[in-house]
Design goal:
Length: 321
C-alpha cells in the first residue's frame, strides 16, 4: 500500500519498494518528501533566486521543449541499440534494457557529441535563455556533457555527493542542470536532493574543499595515477558517503524527489547534496547533467574544449601528503 506524504509542496503519493543500492529507503514523512515545483514563478526571476537561495535547487516542470527532447531521446536510443543496450523485441522509444550493466557517465559522454537535438535542447533556446535571466548576464556552459544511462540493478544508484569536488577549479557559482530524457517515475530511480544540504557549513568547509584530481605524489600508486592506469587514489573519491539512507539519518534531513516528466528541468548548486535511487523497471533511465555559469567568471579547465581532459592524467595535481 502506498504511503501518503504531505509537505509545503503539497501531497505526494510514494510507492513502496524504493531502494538505494538495494537498501530500502525510509519514505515516512520525516525522511522523504516532494521537490518544490516552481511552475508558478517561471517568469519571476527575483522569486526564483529567492527560492534557490532557500532550497538550494529549482524544480521547473515542463520548462524545456518536449519535441526537441524526444528527438534527442530517439537519437540516443539508436546509439545505445548499436551498443546492444536496447532490447529490440520492444519499440525503440520504450527504451527497454537488454541487460543489466553499471555504466560510467565518462564512457557514455560520446552519446552527446553527434546528437544535434540534444545539443539544441541543452545549449540554446529555453535552457540558455533561462540562465541568462537567472544569472543576469551572458553565460557559458561547460563543454563536457555527462550522459547517464541507468539500467536496473542496485549497482547503478549514484552515491551522495557535492558537484564542487569534481569541478571546483573555476567559479563556485556554477549550476547543474539535470535533464531527464524521458518520463522518470520514482520507481525508475530519479535524482534525489537532500533537503537543506547547501546549508551544511561544516560539510562545505571539509568535504566541500576536496578536489578529486589531487593525489599524493608519495603514495604507492602515484605512478599509476600519473600515467592514467588509475583514475583516482581511492575508488570512492568524490562521494560524501556510500549510503544515502545513512546520510539522511545522520544529517537529520529528508531526501526529496518527484515523478519527472520529459521537459522537466532540475537546477541545483555546487553545494547541494544529491544522489539517485535504484531503477526498479526494465527500462533504461536516460538523463544528462550539464553545467552553466556567467561567461565573465573563471572556468574549470578540465571540462572545456573539443576534447576535455576530464579526470585524465593531465587533470592531476600532485601534492606531498
Amino acid at each position: 500500500m502506498a504511503s501518503q506524504l504531505a509537505d509545503c509542496a503539497g501531497a505526494m503519493t510514494v510507492p513502496t519498494g524504493l531502494t538505494f543500492q538495494g537498501r530500502p529507503l525510509d519514505v515516512s514523512p520525516g525522511r522523504f518528501g516532494a521537490l518544490r515545483a516552481s511552475t508558478d514563478a517561471l517568469d519571476d526571476f527575483g522569486e526564483l533566486r529567492r527560492r534557490f537561495e532557500a532550497d538550494g535547487y529549482l524544480y521547473l516542470p515542463g520548462m524545456l521543449e518536449r519535441e526537441t527532447l524526444l528527438a534527442a531521446r530517439r537519437r540516443m536510443l539508436e546509439d545505445l541499440a548499436q551498443m546492444s543496450f536496447v532490447d529490440s523485441d520492444f519499440p525503440l522509444m520504450d527504451g527497454v534494457a537488454s541487460r543489466e550493466a553499471a555504466v560510467s557517465a565518462l564512457s557514455m559522454q560520446g552519446l552527446a557529441k553527434n546528437n544535434e537535438p540534444l545539443r539544441q535542447a541543452l545549449f540554446s533556446g529555453r535552457m540558455i535563455g533561462f540562465y541568462e535571466r537567472f544569472l543576469g548576464g551572458p553565460v557559458r556552459h561547460l563543454d563536457f556533457t555527462w550522459c547517464r544511462v541507468k539500467t536496473s540493478g542496485s549497482e547503478t544508484a549514484t552515491s551522495p555527493h557535492y558537484d564542487i569536488v569534481f569541478m571546483g577549479r573555476g567559479t563556485s557559482n556554477l549550476y547543474t542542470s539535470w535533464t531527464p530524457l524521458g518520463d522518470i517515475p520514482r520507481q525508475m530511480g530519479g535524482l534525489m536532493i537532500l533537503e537543506n544540504s547547501h546549508r551544511q557549513e561544516k560539510i562545505k568547509s571539509s568535504y566541500g574543499r576536496i578536489d578529486v584530481d589531487v593525489y599524493c605524489t608519495n603514495a604507492p600508486d602515484a605512478a599509476e595515477i600519473e600515467t592514467g592506469q588509475k583514475r583516482w587514489h581511492h575508488a570512492d573519491t568524490g562521494q560524501y558517503a556510500k549510503d544515502a539512507v545513512a546520510v539522511g539519518l545522520d544529517l537529520k534531513s529528508r531526501w526529496l524527489t518527484t515523478d519527472y516528466q520529459l521537459g522537466d528541468l532540475l537546477v541545483f548548486g555546487m553545494y547541494t547534496m544529491h544522489a539517485s535511487m535504484d531503477n526498479h523497471t526494465n527500462r533504461l533511465r536516460l538523463s544528462t547533467d550539464t553545467r552553466y555559469q556567467l561567461a565573465s567568471e573563471p572556468v574549470d579547465e578540465r571540462w572545456i574544449g573539443e576534447e576535455p581532459i576530464a579526470h585524465g592524467p593531465e587533470a592531476k595535481k600532485g601534492i606531498i601528503c
